[in-house]
Amino acid sequence: MPAHAVPRAVVFDAYGTLLDVHAAVARHAARIGPQAAALSALWRARQIEYSWILSAVGDYEPFIELTARALDHAMAVHGVADAALRADLLAAYRRLDAYPDAAATLTSLCARGLGTAILSNGSPEMLVDAVAAGGLGALLDAVLSVDPLRRYKPAPAIYALATERFACTPAEIAFVSSNPWDAYGAARFGFRVFWVNRAGAPAEYGLDRSATMIASLAALVDAL
Q1: Known catalytic residue: 101?
Q2: Four-way CATH pick for 23-93: 1.10.150.240, 3.40.1740.10, 3.30.390.30, 1.20.1250.20
């Protein structure tokens, strides 16, 4: 598909792209103390790492379980032992804040007649809660979880869930992710990729050549 062609559908990663993965800790930062930001960063890093390791060895555990295990590790590293806080953090992760420009971006895409979907590592029950909390449900044609395939991104079979849902070729899908490794996997699959680089980080995985970098979701509509 030429770079200027309009895709048939726009498919979004959920965690870190539409949803702020650090919102859970932010809500309870005062209870955690000065190490809150570091704890949140480690929680996210281990959550992703666990998914990669399981996929690499051909194993699978639901993302909701990986999320809990990653939190346990982060809390232990930072010396936070509080069962009530742990429960509150996990509950907050089920209802993360959507980024402020998420709903408006999806609304604009829908108005243009484009299909919209989430394609996520998240467990189905996590995604149901997250979409409801973010008020995004009416703006999405599909919410696709890796769970039925029992593998995690960036396995190619995961990206095929989107082409199957929209009955199209990879080149007819615009894929949006804030995670460089996810953007790389999507580009390798053949999607037209938009990397949401909110922090202005240096390009990785050759994304300066294989993806369009945007600073926010709000920039997506004009970039298509």
Answers
A1: no
A2: 1.10.150.240
